[in-house]
Design brief:
The chain has one domain (2-203): Rossmann fold (3-Layer(aba) Sandwich), CATH 3.40.50.300. It has a 6-stranded mixed beta sheet, with helices on both faces. The protein has 6 helices and 6 strands; from the N terminus they run H-E-H-E-E-H-E-H-E-H-E-H. The protein has 204 residues and is of the alpha/beta class. The structure holds guanosine-3'-monophosphate-5'-diphosphate and magnesium ion. Magnesium ion (MG) binds at residues 39-40, 54, 57, 76.
Length: 204
């Protein structure tokens, strides 16, 4: 048997997953965002507890993770322009959405992210209405906070037009650095709080 840090961190996640199965069901979450925003780095960081150099995502990656007090089946979908139309099939019946943004990117890229994010929310809102499911809450991860040009969450929220989303769309924005993992637990806890609140409201 091979004992190495990677194996240990993976095994710890497996044990946490098995233990958590006893107390709460897993939520399905789809991670989207422009290419190079840091989606795969974030997913692998959550899964293995350390930095893994991600190769560009051709299709999708999926991992089961325990984070922020929740159990998640996470789908990380490629963000290159030509594959963005595929996001719709992943987000159609998801419980929650994570939109990762490179908070240090130039104005043009942030504007591109704003357009794509609004589209994802519109499409997932329409699908949830058609399927009579609750609208998936949206967590925007303001990633790459380690870079000097990174916008803080409040500025990024404004630049992305989050306050202009429909009232029915629950959202939050959380700062993070997927390379070091800083902020990721808190970000997932924020997503869990949004999901719990929405599920409570839906039951009433
Ligand atoms: P994607 O899955 O959204 O396309 P990746 O993005 O996870 O493949 O990451 C794209 C690049 O951004 C990678 O660098 C990765 O290391 C880097 N990155 C991800 N998160 C952060 C972060 O929080 N801070 C910084 N500084 N870089 C980050 P390379 O050089 O491999 O392309
Ligand atoms: Mg990727």
């Amino acid at each position: 048997m091979c004992w190495c840090w990677e194996g240990m961190a993976g095994a710890v996640q497996e044990v946490m997953w098995a233990a958590a199965t006893l107390v709460r069901p897993a939520a399905h979450v789809v991670v989207v965002g422009l290419d190079s925003a840091g989606k795969t780095t974030l997913l692998l960081r959550l899964r293995y507890g350390h930095y893994v150099n991600a190769v560009p995502t051709a299709g999708f990656n999926t991992e089961r993770v325990v984070a922020g007090g929740g159990r998640w089946v996470v789908w990380d979908v490629g963000g290159a322009e030509r594959v963005r139309p595929l996001w719709r099939s992943y987000t159609r019946a998801t419980d929650a959405l994570v939109f990762v943004v490179d908070a240090s990117a130039g104005e043009e890229r942030v504007e591109e992210a704003r357009v794509e994010m609004a589209r994802v929310c519109r499409e997932s809102g329409a699908s949830s209405l058609a399927l009579r499911r609750p609208r998936p809450p949206l967590l925007v991860v303001a990633n790459k906070q380690d870079l000097p040009a990174a916008r803080d969450p409040a500025h990024l929220a404004k630049a992305l037009g989050l306050p202009d989303l429909p009232e029915a769309q629950p959202w939050a924005v959380a700062p993070a650095c997927a390379v070091t993992g800083e902020g990721l637990e808190e970000a997932m806890a924020t997503l869990k709080a949004l999901l719990d609140k929405q599920r409570q409201g839906h039951r009433q």
